[in-house]
Structures are given as structure tokens and as C-alpha cells.
């Protein structure tokens, strides 16, 4: 089992290293991540490599039985590189240079930077590719974090032009796809195309905007592959990962994950930027990471103390570190590494707290991590590799998320909010869910939900029709099928490519501003909730209504529909359902689809229920996110694995407590 910390020996005197390693071992730590920000320490000047300090650190860790995930240090190119090649700096859409002093300030497409990257990664792979202490590699650090993907420098301009030429071949094909006849934007050569940089009226051609986001994401994928290829050529067989950001969306992480051996997540539940952390947001990020490769993952950075750069976020209360750790495990984490080992005394993250405080003396957080590690050493081997056993898939489409950022169409609403509305329904109703791409195999699920599937990816409509006809259940909603895959409008009647699947025609539509809503009723006239954000006026061709508008000019027309397709059913929600309306509509959908919630345990809403299951085994997690004890009701006697005792009937779970049942 891999249970560990992120460690920065270069921040501390060498005399301290043996004590750190000893304290790690005593806490049950088996794995550290190391090296990902150490380039200027490894290569102080060009070609002057200094690996001896890292050798000594690895040796000291190995003496305590601790293994290493080695990070390539390319997130922080040294000052001497940037001074020699200032063109490596990223530029924002106003042409402002990102500048030195942070991290990830480089451009993915700069050929001069690639030379230096190849050199440092090759040297590291040659030195440590056969080192028994190195069990895996991490490429760079947090691609797509803090707005570090879309660059507007001259190198990106040239690279974008080439990317477009490779995609469209002929300039008139691009003109047609983008519709450049609008505003007299017809191009005569790919070399004429400029990046969609800042303008006084910030609205570029939507086809160009989408392609630029696709290009920028592809640039990160190619930059990662540059390093992957080097390590695999020198150290074949060593697994490689990257630490992703869950629900961040600058990069298509489905693409980024394809060539990785496993995915990793950086998880900071207290950084959800709300009045208080919402465990549903943390759970969604975990499930999204599991969905990148449809397999379990590592948490490469797990919050261990109050995070903060210039402002501190809340300090984890006693028990919260442990319960967040178990939440990660419950959603598919097969390894946990806390960030960081010891709180740094200097630099931009001196308030980003680790297991040890600034003075380096073990205290409450260290002891809680040690207790958690002892438990996980017993439990994780029982469930390693076992996924969620989910019957429901939510389809996450980065490209549909991007186009709704480019043209939101409504105020106070965006793609992720809609995805979260579905996710929270399933979370609240104890239904495990996978968050996956539209390339996945739908046949493995009873229900597939596609939030705001505005652009119809070629082949997906036909794929959904086959899936539904074979007995599957599909949910689509507002704006579905509005556009083609090039981000121009579909000229067929809405819902475009999905009109036959859904058996409806949309004859009118409109937005609902913030605070506006429309009453929604069931067949018996019972109020079931409010429609928000948007309304479609629906004509049922083959479908039957399951909910109706009760006010405004569309009163009496369908707000949601159901269409029988072969052995299955396709649903359409023609408005943004508020929580009550979502509960009613999705309750009907799930009952019809035969979706099974976690039934072995009943719990109040403060207690999260999650599951890891396969055809042979089933593990139920009860995680109390409240600061007070809660009561559970067990359907039958069950063994609680942490305490190794059988519980039955009513069971009390302590504040921030965790039970794992088998």
C-alpha cells in the first residue's frame, strides 16, 4: 500500500533528513513524492548538474523503507533559462508576459524550452530509471491550474496555425466550418489567422474560440508526451502519472490521461471557496478523477492542514483529516499522499500547512495521520482496484463546457452547475455514479445522463439510440443538440440530432434571469418544483409528457418528456429543475430504470454513504461530515472493518467518524 507525503528535503538542513525519515516510518508512511520543484537545485547553471543531494535523500528514505514518486521539475524553469530565453514566458490575451516569481510560467509550445526539458528529464531518467527506491514518476505539476494553459505568444500563434492546417487541410474548409463570411472574416491562408486575443468587444468567432481551447489542451497533452516518451525509452516499465485537478477544465483530462499508467488528484476539501466545505464537491472531484481512465487513482496531494497562500482557509478540526482521507478511499483512491510533510518557513506557501507545523514537532495532525495510516494498511489491501460498481454514468464533455464559457447564453448559470445538480441528486440519494466521457461504453450502465449536451459529437446520437433501444435509459436536457461539433448552429429543428431519440420538437425557448422561475406540475396538478434558467416550449411527436409548465404563455405545455425507444427510454428536461423538481423527475427516472441505491445502511443527510464493489465484494462507507454524532440504521448485521466488530440495528457514528462495512 502507498501511504505517504509530499516531501521537500531541499527546504531543510541535511542534518534533519534522518529524523524526518524516522518520523515518517513511525507514522506508517511508505511513499513520498519528491523533486517536482527542484530544477534550480538540480541544475544551478546550464549543464552543471547536482544530483548528489537527491541521492542522499533517497538513500536516507530507503533506509527507513520509504519509496519515492519522482517528479520531473519542469513546472519551475530556473531564472537562468528564462533570462536567456524570455520568449519562453507565457503571454495572456492582452499580450502581458506572465513573468518570473510563480510557477508554470512557461509556454507549452516553445521549442527552446523543449530543449531544456529534454535535457533535465533525460538526465533524471538515466540516473534514477533503475533506482529501486523510485516506484513511479510524476510529470510536471498540476497542468491547467491557475490559468496556465491558454498562451497568446508568437510561438503559440504559429503552432495554432499549423494545428488548424493539419485539421482542416484547406483554408476554405476552415472558412466554411467557422462561418467566416460573418463580419467579413474570410481568410485566404492559415498564416493570416491570429489568436483570439483581447478585444474591446470580447466576442470572437465561436468556432475559432473552441478550436483555440482544443489546441491549447492538445498542447499540454503533447508537452506531457514529450516527457513520457523520454522516461519510457530509458526506464521502461516504470509507471507514470500526473497530478490533476478534478473539476478544473482548462485541459481535457480524458485526453491527458490516455497515455498515463494511472491518474492522480490533488484534493483540498477546504478550498472549495464556499462558506463551508461541501463534501459533495470533494466527492465529485474524486469521482471525476476515477472517470478519466475509468479506473482507480492516487491522491497525490491530500490536504493535511489549513491551506493558504496569502489567506488561510479553515483548519481541519480533529477527525476531519481522517474522514476526508476515507472519503477519497471510498471514491476509488488506492493511495494517499498528504501535502505536505512539514510546513515551509519561506516562500509563497509558508502558510500552506502540512502534517508537521513550522517547528517540525509532531502534533495532532501527525498523530491523526498515523492512526489513519495504521487503519488503511489493514483495509486498503482488501479493496485495492475495486471500483464503484455504479449503474449510472454522468457524461462530462469538456468541449460542451468550453462553448458554454465562450457563449454562456444565460446569467448566473454554467455547465458545471448543471452537472453538479445531477451529481448532488445521486449523492443525496445514495446512488453511486461514474463521471465519464462520451467515448465510454454506455452498455455497462443502466442510466446515462448528459448535462447540457449542446454540441452533438459525431456518432453520439446514433450510439445513444442503440443503447436506448437495447434497454438503456438516457436523460438529456436544455440546449441539447443545438450545435454541430464545430460550434456553429444546427439548422435542423431542435433538439437537433436528438429529436428522433427524444420524440419531440422544440418550437420556442427563452431564458429565465436570476431569481426568475416557472411553476412545474405533475399530471395530477401537484406542484413538484420550479423551472429555472431556461424554458423550452415542447411539442410531443412520439414522446409523452411527465411534467408541465403551470404559468406563463407556455402553461399547460410539457416541461419534461419521456419517449419509449425499443426496450429503453429517453427523457428530456426542458427547463433547469430546482432541487425539488430534480428530486421528482430523477426519482421517476431512476425508479423506471431500476437504479439501486445503497440500501444496507440508512443515514441522515450529514452522513455520506459511498461504495466500492465488484461482482464478488462490496464495501460500504459511512462518513459523518457533521461535528456531532449521528445515528445509522443497518438493514442486517454487518461487520465494521476498522473496529473489526459486528454491528446491527441502530449504530451511532461519532462526529467526523467513519465506518467501513463489509
Automatic annotation (TrEMBL):
Binding residues for substrate: 103, 141
Gene Ontology CC entries for this record: beta-galactosidase complex
Organism ancestry: Bacteria, Bacillati, Bacillota, Bacilli, Bacillales
Active site: 142 (proton donor), 301 (nucleophile)
MF annotations from Gene Ontology: beta-galactosidase activity; metal ion binding
Positions of the Glycoside hydrolase family 42 N-terminal domain: 6-378
Coiled coil stretches, renumbered: none
Protein name: Beta-galactosidase
Pfam family, one: Glyco_hydro_42
Amino acid at each position: 500500500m502507498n501511504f505517504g507525503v509530499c516531501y521537500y528535503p531541499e527546504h531543510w538542513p541535511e542534518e534533519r533528513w534522518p529524523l524526518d525519515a524516522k518520523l515518517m516510518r513511525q507514522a506508517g508512511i511508505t511513499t513520498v513524492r519528491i523533486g517536482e520543484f527542484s530544477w534550480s537545485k538540480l541544475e544551478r547553471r546550464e549543464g552543471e548538474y547536482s544530483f548528489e543531494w537527491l541521492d542522499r535523500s533517497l538513500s536516507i528514505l530507503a533506509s527507513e523503507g520509504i519509496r519515492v514518486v519522482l517528479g520531473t521539475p519542469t513546472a519551475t524553469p530556473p531564472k537562468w533559462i528564462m533570462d536567456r530565453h524570455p520568449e519562453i514566458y507565457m503571454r495572456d490575451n492582452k499580450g502581458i508576459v506572465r513573468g518570473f516569481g510563480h510557477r508554470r510560467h512557461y509556454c507549452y509550445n516553445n521549442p527552446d524550452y523543449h530543449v531544456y526539458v529534454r535535457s533535465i528529464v533525460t538526465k533524471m531518467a538515466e540516473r534514477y530509471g533503475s533506482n529501486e527506491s523510485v516506484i513511479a514518476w510524476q510529470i510536471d505539476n498540476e497542468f491547467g491550474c491557475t490559468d496556465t494553459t491558454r498562451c497568446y505568444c508568437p510561438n503559440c500563434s504559429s503552432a495554432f496555425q499549423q494545428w488548424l492546417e493539419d485539421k482542416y487541410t484547406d483554408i476554405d474548409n476552415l472558412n466554411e466550418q467557422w462561418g467566416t463570411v460573418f463580419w467579413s472574416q474570410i481568410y485566404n491562408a492559415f498564416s493570416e489567422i491570429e489568436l483570439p486575443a483581447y478585444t474591446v468587444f470580447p466576442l470572437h468567432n465561436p468556432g475559432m474560440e473552441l478550436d483555440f481551447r482544443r489546441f491549447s489542451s492538445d498542447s499540454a497533452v503533447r508537452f506531457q508526451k514529450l516527457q513520457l516518451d523520454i522516461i519510457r525509452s530509458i526506464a521502461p516499465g516504470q509507471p507514470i502519472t500526473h497530478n490533476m485537478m478534478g473539476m478544473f477544465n482548462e485541459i481535457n483530462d480524458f485526453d491527458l490521461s490516455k497515455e498515463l499508467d494511472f491518474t492522480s488528484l490533488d484534493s483540498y476539501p477546504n478550498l472549495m471557496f464556499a462558506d463551508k466545505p461541501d463534501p459533495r464537491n470533494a466527492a465529485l472531484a474524486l469521482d471525476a478523477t476515477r472517470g478519466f481512465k475509468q479506473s482507480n487513482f492516487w491522491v497525490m496531494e491530500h490536504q493535511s492542514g489549513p491551506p493558504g497562500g496569502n489567506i488561510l482557509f479553515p483548519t481541519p478540526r480533529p477527525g476531519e483529516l481522517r474522514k476526508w482521507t476515507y472519503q477519497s478511499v471510498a471514491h476509488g483512491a488506492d493511495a494517499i499522499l498528504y501535502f505536505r510533510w512539514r510546513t515551509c518557513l519561506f516562500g509563497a506557501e509558508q502558510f500552506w500547512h502540512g502534517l508537521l507545523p513550522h517547528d517540525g514537532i509532531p502534533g495532532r495532525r501527525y498523530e491523526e495521520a498515523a492512526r489513519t495510516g495504521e487503519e488503511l494498511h489493514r483495509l486498503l489491501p482488501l479493496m485495492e482496484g475495486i471500483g464503484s460498481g455504479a449503474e449510472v454514468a454522468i457524461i462530462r464533455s469538456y468541449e460542451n463546457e468550453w462553448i458554454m464559457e465562450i457563449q454562456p447564453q444565460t446569467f448566473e448559470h454554467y455547465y458545471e452547475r448543471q452537472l453538479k445538480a445531477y451529481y448532488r441528486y445521486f449523492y443525496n440519494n445514495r446512488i453511486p455514479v461514474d463521471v465519464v466521457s462520451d467515448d465510454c461504453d454506455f452498455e455497462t450502465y443502466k442510466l446515462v445522463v448528459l448535462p447540457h449536451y449542446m454540441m452533438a459529437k459525431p456518432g453520439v446520437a446514433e450510439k445513444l439510440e442503440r443503447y436506448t433501444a437495447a434497454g438503456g435509459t438516457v436523460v438529456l436536457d436544455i440546449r441539447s443538440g443545438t450545435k454541430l461539433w464545430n460550434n456553429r448552429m444546427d439548422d435542423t429543428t431542435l433538439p437537433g440530432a436528438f429529436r428522433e431519440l427524444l420524440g419531440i420538437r422544440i418550437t420556442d425557448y427563452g431564458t429565465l434571469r436570476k431569481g426568475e422561475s416557472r411553476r412545474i406540475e405533475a399530471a395530477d396538478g401537484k406542484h413538484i418544483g420550479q423551472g429555472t434558467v431556461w424554458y423550452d416550449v415542447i411539442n410531443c411527436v412520439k414522446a409523452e409528457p411527465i411534467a408541465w409548465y403551470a404559468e406563463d404563455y407556455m402553461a399547460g405545455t410539457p416541461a419534461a418528456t419521456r419517449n419509449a425507444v425499443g426496450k429503453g427510454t429517453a427523457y428530456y428536461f426542458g427547463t433547469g429543475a430546482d432541487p425539488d423538481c430534480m428530486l421528482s423527475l430523477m426519482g421517476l427516472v431512476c425508479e423506471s430504470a431500476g437504479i439501486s441505491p445503497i440500501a444496507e445502511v440508512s443515514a441522515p443527510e450529514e452522513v455520506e454513504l459511498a461504495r466500492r464493489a465488484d461482482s464478488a465484494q462490496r464495501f460500504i462507507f459511512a462518513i459523518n461530515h457533521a461535528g456531532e454524532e449521528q445515528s445509522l440504521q443497518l438493514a442486517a448485521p454487518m461487520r465494521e472493518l476498522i473496529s473489526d466488530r459486528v454491528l446491527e440495528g441502530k449504530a451511532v457514528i461519532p462526529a467526523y467518524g467513519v465506518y467501513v462495512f463489509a
